[in-house]
Structure formats: structure tokens, C-alpha cells
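Students often ask why inverse folding is considered easier than folding. One informal answer: many sequences map to the same fold, so there is more than one right answer. In these notes we will look at a single instance of the problem. The structure comes first.
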């Protein structure tokens, strides 16, 4: 058996190879948070003076097919998410370069020359090397082949040049993640390029710098083996034995080494972990605590920063004392429905619960800092109201990257740590100043398509706000109430034959495009009791409204009574979208 080969190599070396993700591997799985972290790390790296960035390990298995003479294939056993995301990043850079090339005015000599340079650069660095390989006889083959579930979508919408401003919808969950990842990469790269304005030469130079520093300075530990069994032994050794050694475990071992004479420390640590584990993560908690008091740190650097801060037994005692006392507020933030004893104000718990249900966490350090610094409960409620408006306006509906707010809340936490309760008014105002303005919010809301797990939360709050005091059937959970698509997902019974002038008015070319564009908009979704929802199913609108009239949710009566039109068309959806927007502006105000 050949020994495995271990070597550190820049990512460009792997991108030039023909690599395959075997069909039995899972599909693309990175969420937007992981993709956002990857981009944040990259942009931090290029602003630093570091010569390289360690991007993790890639385990490869070189195999030969006995049915094909001398045919050799390289399978990715571990690292497929990093490799796929790397190709997406480079593909986005290529497509933005194409946008710049298309913007060049060939009547201007300097721009004509720039266009030729860009087009040649795309062919030499993207097509021939890292994304695809142009064959002499025409056509293109691609260096990375994904597993079956992603292969065709990845080829058509990532590896080939596409219009990034209109991402292609796909119902496969894994392909949806690819689409969202590309959209997020495109958005974040564009934000980094904003300082260049319309200077085409400066834009090209900036992207060239991104390309060069990523391909040359992002290093991986490349592990190559020629035996499949050996490949998986290595994989299990790295991932199974090492998976428990997160920052929390490393810190526990470090603290126990310093506090050898404290027999109770291990018991206290285990108690903390057991309290946290059902709803949270120990490493996450320690990081949020750190960011509530000290300079911002990412999870990968947490152990080293804490170790640097706690060099003796006295330091460890102080750190752990405050850490242990912060567990209760962290558990409240993670599960406010189960830990209402932390605060007396029900409204505070209700708003934290809303934030939990829309996946907001970046504000945790500020609340941990507020409790530690004995800020009054009503003052914390004032901050939480602002945070809720910020998160829902800017992130949930506005589509901004939540990762960028981690540093913002760290800055606020440090301000509170330094100045105590006296800083609360200033901090609350800074939150309000950060909230998206009404005009921009209206623009974003007009096209708002809520993620499936957010629809119930947003509609419940909008309905509760507009129709407070009326009899409703909206509970705190979704057991009795479902999300209803008025124009249904299964459209077979609906007549979607529209006149050309109608299609033009709605910004569509075909009836199918109408369905794709308007189906998931919040204006096409409402809440119905489970019984009524099952009865209307995929019926036509004229039959649905008879059932809507039975609902105790007043908005459904408005729909049934024709508040948005006697027929249900994109015009109705847009009108209702505007109505819901006005409610949202009041429910989550800027000031």
C-alpha cells in the first residue's frame, strides 16, 4: 500500500486539477452564514499583511478505472464544500469582469484596449485554468465535477458565464443553497467594489487583486492517497476523533492545566456545558461572552485570544466567574419561551422570541453586556425594540448579510462595558441610526419573498399589529395555523392565460414567468387555520374566498371581500404587498 502524500499547496494547484465529487457524497450544504464567513475571512485577509491563509484540508483519492486504459480520476473525499465555494467565488469574479468588459465603449481607444485585456484575462485565468478548460476543437470542459444532485445546475449556473443579477430558481434544496451562495458572493464582492465607482480600470485592478490573492495565498493541506480505504481512515481520524475538540474543549483542558489544585472546576464546567447543550453550543456561548467584553474575535481564533488573556490562576478565576454568571442570560436568548425568569417584562421576552424565530443572534453580546453591567430592564427593552427593527428591516426583509453586524454589536458592547448605564442612550441611538430608512425599505419590501421558516413569524406580527384586539386564531406556535399561498404552489386548476399587455405590466414575458415571479412574494401568502387551509388546498380563487370568509383572521376577510381585487392576479399581489409594507413600517419603525 502506498503511503499517503501530505503537502501544503495554494488553492490554485487544486483548482487546475480535474476533480470529482463522488455520487455518494452529500450535495452542496453550506448555508449563507458559512459562505458569509468565508468571504469575511477573505476580505479580512486581503486587508492584512499576512502572506497566506490556511483554508483547511482537502483529502483526495486517486483511482483508476479498470475498464478504461490508463484512465485516472481524482475523487474529493473531504473538502468538497470548500472547493465548490471556491469555484463559485471565482465564477462570480469572472462574471463581474464580463460585466465590466461589456461596459467598455469600443469607440474610446483606452476602453477598447481595456476590453481586450479583460477578455484575454478571462480566457487565460478562468476558462483555461481554474473554472473551465477551453478545448482546441471548441466546447468547454470543467475542472470540478459535482455529485449527481448538483452537477447539471452547477455547470449551467456557476461554471458557465451567467447574469448574476437574476439568479435562476431551482426547487432542489441543495441547488437552492448554490443559488443563494452565488447571490451572496456577488452581493458582497459588489459591496467591496463600491469604492471604485464607475472607474473601469480601477474595477479591473481590484478584481485582479482579489483573484491573485485568493488563488496564490489561500493554502490547503492537500492529502492524497491511492487507496479508498486509507482515504476514509484519514477522513475519520481527522473528522471523528477531532470533532469534539472545539474551542470550548481546548479551553477546558487549558483551564484545568492551570487550575490543577481546584478539584471543583471540572464539575462546574460540565454543569455549564450540560445546561447549555440542549438549546445552545458551548463554544458559541464563550465567543458571545468574549465579544460582550473584549475586542471582536471569530470562532477560529477564540482559543488563542482567551489563552492570551488568561495566563495565570487569578486571570482564569476572574474569567470563569463572569462566564458562569452569563450562562443564564445566554439561555434566555436561546430559548426565551423556557427561561422567562431572567426578566420580568413579558414584552421583552416576546420580542426576543421573535428574534429567535427569524434566526437573529449577532446581538447576543450586547444583551449579555447589558445584564452584566446592570442596565435597567426598560432600557434593555428599548435597545431590543431597536434591534428588532434593525434585524427585520435590514436583514430579514432588506437582505443584508447578518455577519457584518457582529462587529457593530461588539463595538456597542465595548462602549457599554467602558461607560456603563450612562452609555445606553447613545447605544440605542446608534442602533436607530443603523436601521434602514423608509424609502429603501419600501423598495426592498415590494419584492420581498420571505424564507419559508420566516413567513409565519412575519405575517403573525403584521396581522397582530394591524388588527390588535380582534378575535384571531393565531397562536404562538404553528400547530393550529398554516401558511397559505393564495395563488397555490400546485397551479393546475388555475387559468394563467394573460394578455400581452398584462404580462408587460407585470414585468413578465410568459404566464409561467408570472407564476415563478409572484408565487413566493409575501403579498401572495396569508395565515389560515389548519382546517380551512386543508379545505382550500389548490382551489381556484373564486372557491377559496368562500372558505376565507370563515376565518377569524381579519386580513383573510379583507382578501375575500375584494380589498385587493375580485380576481387574484399579480396586480392584487402587488397591491397587498404595498398594504403589508405600510403595516411593517409602523411595526418596525426607524425612530
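Output (designed amino acids):
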Amino acid at each position: 500500500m502506498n503511503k499517503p502524500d501530505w503537502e501544503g499547496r495554494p488553492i490554485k494547484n487544486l483548482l487546475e486539477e480535474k476533480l470529482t465529487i463522488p455520487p455518494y457524497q452529500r450535495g452542496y450544504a453550506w448555508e449563507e452564514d458559512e459562505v458569509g464567513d468565508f468571504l469575511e475571512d477573505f476580505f479580512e485577509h486581503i486587508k492584512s499583511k499576512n502572506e497566506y491563509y490556511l483554508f483547511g484540508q482537502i483529502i483526495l483519492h486517486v483511482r483508476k478505472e479498470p475498464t478504461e486504459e490508463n484512465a485516472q480520476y481524482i475523487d474529493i473525499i473531504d473538502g468538497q464544500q470548500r472547493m465548490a465555494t471556491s469555484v463559485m467565488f471565482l465564477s462570480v469574479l469572472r462574471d463581474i469582469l464580463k460585466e465590466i468588459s461589456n461596459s467598455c465603449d469600443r469607440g474610446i481607444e483606452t476602453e477598447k484596449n481595456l476590453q481586450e485585456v479583460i477578455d484575454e484575462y478571462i480566457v487565460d485565468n478562468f476558462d483555461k485554468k481554474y473554472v473551465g478548460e477551453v478545448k482546441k476543437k471548441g466546447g468547454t470542459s470543467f475542472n470540478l465535477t459535482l455529485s449527481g444532485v448538483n452537477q447539471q445546475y452547477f455547470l449551467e449556473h456557476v461554471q458557465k458565464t451567467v447574469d448574476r443579477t437574476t439568479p435562476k430558481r431551482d426547487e432542489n434544496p441543495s441547488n437552492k443553497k448554490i443559488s443563494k451562495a452565488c447571490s451572496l458572493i456577488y452581493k458582497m464582492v459588489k459591496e467591496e467594489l463600491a469604492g471604485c465607482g464607475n472607474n473601469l480600470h480601477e474595477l479591473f485592478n481590484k478584481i485582479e487583486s482579489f483573484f491573485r490573492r485568493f488563488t496564490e495565498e489561500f493554502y490547503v493541506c492537500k492529502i492524497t492517497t491511492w487507496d479508498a480505504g486509507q482515504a476514509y481512515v484519514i477522513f475519520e481520524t481527522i473528522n471523528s476523533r477531532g470533532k469534539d475538540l472545539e474551542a470550548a474543549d481546548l479551553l477546558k483542558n487549558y483551564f484545568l492545566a492551570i487550575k490543577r489544585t481546584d478539584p471543583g472546576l471540572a464539575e462546574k464546567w460540565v454543569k455549564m456545558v450540560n445546561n447549555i447543550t440542549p438549546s445552545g453550543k458551548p463554544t458559541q456561548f464563550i465567543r458571545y461572552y468574549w465579544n460582550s467584553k473584549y475586542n471582536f474575535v471569530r470562532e477560529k481564533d477564540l482559543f488563542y485570544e482567551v489563552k492570551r488573556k488568561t495566563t495565570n490562576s487569578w486571570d482564569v478565576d476572574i474569567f470563569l466567574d463572569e462566564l458562569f454568571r452569563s450562562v443564564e442570560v445566554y439561555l434566555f436568548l436561546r430559548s426565551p419561551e423556557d427561561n422567562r425568569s431572567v426578566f420580568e417584562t413579558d414584552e421583552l421576552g416576546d420580542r426576543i422570541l421573535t428574534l429567535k424565530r427569524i434566526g437573529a443572534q449577532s446581538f447576543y453580546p450586547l444583551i449579555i453586556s447589558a445584564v452584566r453591567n446592570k442596565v435597567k430592564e426598560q432600557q434593555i427593552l428599548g435597545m431590543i425594540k431597536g434591534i428588532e427593527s434593525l434585524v427585520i428591516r435590514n436583514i430579514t426583509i432588506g437582505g443584508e448579510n447578518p455577519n457584518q453586524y457582529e462587529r457593530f454589536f461588539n463595538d456597542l458592547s465595548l462602549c457599554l462595558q467602558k461607560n456603563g448605564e450612562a452609555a445606553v442612550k447613545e447605544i440605542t441611538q446608534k442602533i436607530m441610526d443603523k436601521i434602514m430608512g423608509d424609502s429603501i425599505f419600501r423598495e426592498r419590501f415590494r419584492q420581498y419573498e420571505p424564507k419559508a421558516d420566516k413567513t409565519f413569524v412575519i405575517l403573525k406580527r403584521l396581522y397582530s399589529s394591524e388588527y390588535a384586539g380582534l378575535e384571531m386564531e393565531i397562536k404562538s406556535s404553528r400547530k393550529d395555523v398554516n401558511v397559505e399561498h393564495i395563488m397555490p404552489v400546485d397551479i393546475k386548476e388555475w387559468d394563467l392565460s394573460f394578455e400581452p399587455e398584462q404580462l408587460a405590466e407585470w414585468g413578465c414575458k410568459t404566464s409561467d414567468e408570472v407564476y415563478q415571479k409572484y408565487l413566493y412574494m409575501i403579498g401572495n401568502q396569508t395565515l389560515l387555520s389548519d382546517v380551512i387551509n386543508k379545505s382550500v388546498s389548490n382551489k381556484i380563487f373564486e372557491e377559496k374566498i368562500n372558505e376565507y370568509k370563515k376565518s377569524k383572521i381579519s386580513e383573510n376577510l379583507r382578501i375575500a371581500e375584494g380589498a385587493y381585487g375580485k380576481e387574484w392576479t399579480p396586480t392584487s399581489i402587488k397591491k397587498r404587498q404595498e398594504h403589508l409594507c405600510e403595516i411593517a413600517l409602523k411595526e418596525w419603525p426607524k425612530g
